[in-house]
Amino acid sequence: MKIFVKYLIINIILLVFFLPFNFVLPQKSIKQTPDTPKPRNIILMIGDGMGLPQVYAAMTANSDNLNMTKFPHLTMAKTFSADNYITDSAAGSTALACGVKTNNGMVGMLPDSTAVKSILLTASEKGLSTGLVATSDVTHATPAAFVASVASRKMAGVIAFQYLDSGIDVFIGGGLNNFVKRSDSLNLVDSLKKRNYHVALTMSDLMSVENGRLAGLIYPDHPPKVNEGRGEMLSLATGKAIEILRLNENGFFLMVEGSQIDWAGHDNDLQSMIDETIDFDKAVGVALEFARQNAETLVIVTADHETGGFTNLGGNFSTGEVYGSFSTDNHSAAPVTVFTFGPGAEQFQGFLDNTDIYRLMYKLLGFDE
Ligand code: MG
Ligand code: ZN
Questions:
Q1: Which carries the bigger pLDDT value, residue 136 or residue 4?
Q2: Which of 53, 94, 321, 326 is packed most tightly, with the most Cβ within 10 A?
Q3: Which of 89, 136, 272, 332 is catalytic?
């Protein structure tokens, strides 16, 4: 009897103590994220020339199996530049990188040639690690707008020079010649080494680097097409950049570009356009896998513009066949898709302007506080 009373008392005590928790706990588990979730890291992925028709062609060719189309949030963005209804990659990248409209051909500057600071340079100043990965020469317009301010995208030598003191931690692509075969006879690879960069000229050397500053200048000029020997460079470089940048507890900003989707569009080469988009999507998969494990990472996948005016005229998800026609060998004005995953993803909504993507990234990283 005594034992029973003891048992009863213990049970009442347990009930009194733990009953409230039974009501509190489920509520807590429902509300795991704070009211306004903020990312510590942002990975911005730009498919150059990758409009919705390119995404849909790749989606069809890959049997309805793309990483970007699995993102929970998506919206659209306008892409026009300051002086043209149809943007080029320089003005398009400046809008994404710096949040301003400029004239076609201009990089990291207002139309009146006032230099503007990119989100990458701001992130670096704020103590985050920063990186760029591209399947073009690293001085090409899209990566350039994140580190350089020049009146013309053609000033590759100046853009290479501006990498030196940008503070960027990791940059990977082609374009070695702009660092070593220069009209001013400077050897910028030596300059990079003096600034503690490991300068990798091959992918195998690059993959052996585990921390610190890394400059991957893997090709003399542009890397080849994915189906002409580039292989897994983009996915591997994306994974390597994340591996190094994530070591900074302040967070990181990384831009990854699938540069050659655009070139396939200019060539009206449907197969290459699909191959380049699927290759870019594999890199998206690498970023997405990291973001799924690291709850503080926002991944944004978008484009600077559409190229080729491609129209999907037929296809088959089972066989992967895709048909269509191009209406131009240049860019079109078609809005681009914005796919987002991670903390803050839901804030990309409504019909955006490309400069809104910069504005939202800036706000979400707390740079306006
Ligand atoms: Mg580009
Ligand atoms: Zn183009």
A1: 136
A2: 94
A3: 89
**Ligand 1 center from residue 88 Cα (angstroms):** 9
pLDDT at 29: 41
**pLDDT beyond 70 at 15:** no
How far apart are the CA of 128 and the centre of ligand 2, in A?
A: 31
Say which ligand is closest to the CA of 266: 2
- Structural domain boundaries in the chain: 44-336+344-364
Ligand 2 center to 93 CA (angstroms): 12
Distance 139 CA to ligand 1 centre (A): 10
Q: Would you tell me which CATH number, out of the four given (3.40.50.360, 3.40.720.10, 3.40.1180.10, 3.40.640.10), belongs to the domain 44-336+344-364?
A: 3.40.720.10
Per-residue confidence band for 147, with pLDDT thresholds at 50, 70 and 90: very high
| Cα angle value 228/229/231 (rounded, 5°) | 120
The long-range contacts involving 60-63, CB below 8 angstroms and separated by at least 24 positions, are 60/312, 60/315, 60/316, 60/317, 60/320, 60/321, 60/322, 61/274, 61/278, 61/315, 61/320, 61/321, 61/322, 62/278, 62/281, 62/320, 63/317, 63/318, 63/320
Give the tens place of pLDDT for each residue, 155-204: 999 999 999 999 999 999 999 999 999 999 999 999 999 999 999 999 99
Contact 136, 223 (CB under 8 A): yes
Give the ligand with the smallest distance to the CA of 93. Answer: 1
> Is 29 among the catalytic positions?
no
pTM over 0.85: yes
User: 368 CA distance to ligand 2 centroid (A)?
Assistant: 33
Which token pair is 210?
């585990």
**Over residues 352-359, mean pLDDT:** 98
